[in-house]
Specification:
signal; alpha+beta; four-stranded antiparallel sheet; PepSY domain-containing protein; PepSY
């Protein structure tokens, strides 16, 4: 009975925090993102994945940005950095 309590707690935690798919875009997708954003005046510094979206760290006009792209590679949210 004592062993069942930690197992039950682990299962409860696993259900409380569902796994978030954080698959990185492949090389071809990253190249397309870089080319598309370059055409818009951005300099891409890093491409990552967060919360099921593609996250791009970029610079434009001397300002840093975190850009969030959807599955169609469209910017759906941006956050200006320092």
């Amino acid at each position: 009975m004592i062993r069942k309590i930690p197992l039950a707690a682990a299962l409860a935690l696993a259900c409380a925090f569902p796994a978030v798919a954080s698959s990185m875009p492949d090389a071809a997708t990253q190249a397309k993102i870089t080319a598309d954003l370059k055409a818009q005046g951005y300099e891409v510094r890093k491409i990552d994945s967060e919360d099921g979206m593609i996250e791009v760290y970029a610079v434009k006009d001397g300002k840093t940005y975190e850009l969030y792209l959807d599955a169609n590679l469209k910017i759906v949210r941006s956050k200006e950095g320092s």
